[in-house]
Amino acid sequence: MPEPPRRPAVVLLSGGLDSTTVAALAKAQGFEVNALTVRYGQVHACEVDAARAVARALGAARHVELDLDLRAIAVSALTGASAVPKDRPLDDAIPATYVPARNTVFLSLALAWAESLGASDVFLGVNALDYSGYPDCRPEFVAAFERLARLGTKAGVEGAPFTIHTPLISMTKAEIIRRGTELGVDYGLTHSCYDPLAGGRPCGRCDSCVLRAKGFAEAGVPDPLLA
Asked: How many Å apart are CA 37 and CA 215, to the nearest integer?
């Protein structure tokens, strides 16, 4: 007997650890994964290659790589406006790697694609525990955007509201890695480093590298990128 068709969902896929785990979770929950990756002028653009590899590995129905260069309007260390900070204490201060309104922009793009696909579900890999202090990773932001989506779209106005899924938002990095490992995620395909060395090797010192190393250590799982 043929499988019933999967319900389409748009998954924002950066190629990092969190977004890869979210894509795997969406697939495990029976959704058809339509992956959206944004090439926004990030200095660590090799994450786009990682997203491409992840989308293939997960069998995404579609993978759109969208060019939207934010460097002219978004001042951030991740768009080359300053050096990526290294070896800093991880606290609640908003770091130089914050990209102004990035998740607002990305969710708007995902929302546009979802409405065009007839999908009412968008998945985002934000996390409010082991993260770098970004304001657009908080539950309050996600709830506010979900309200906006219901008010500002034809589908929402006509009674088909959107759901922004953030299944990792209350999980530690270790919990995320354990869950992804259970789902068979190949973290060797992912890229997390904000300031990669030659050949895309992780620097080991930026916030993202530090959080990744902490997560794998606490999960008791070796990081395949360091094998």
From this structure: 24
The model's pTM: 0.95
Q: What share of the chain is helix, strand, coil (3-state, %, to 5)?
A: 40, 10, 45
pLDDT (0 to 100) of residue 214:
95
The structural domains of the chain, ordered by start, are 7-221 (3.40.50.620)
- Judged by DSSP in three states, 11 sits in strand
Edge to edge, the sheet with strand 163-165 lists 62-67, 31-39, 7-12, 121-123, 163-165
pLDDT for residue 130:
66
For the cut 90, the answer to whether the pLDDT of residue 195 exceeds it is: yes
Rg, C-alpha atoms of the chain: 17
Averaged pLDDT, 78-98 = 91
Angle of helix 207-219 relative to helix 173-182, nearest 10 degrees, comes to: 60
In terms of Cα–Cα distance, which of 167, 171, 214, 188 is closest to 24?
167
pLDDT at residue number 108 = 98
Average pLDDT over the chain, rounded to an integer: 94
> Strand, coil or helix: what is 165?
strand
Identify residue 126 by its one-letter amino acid code.
V
Q: How many residues does the chain have?
A: 227
Residue 93: the pLDDT is 83
> Residue 41: which residues within 8 A CB-CB, separation 6 or more?
69, 70, 71, 74, 79, 80
Separation of alpha carbons 164 and 54, rounded Å: 21
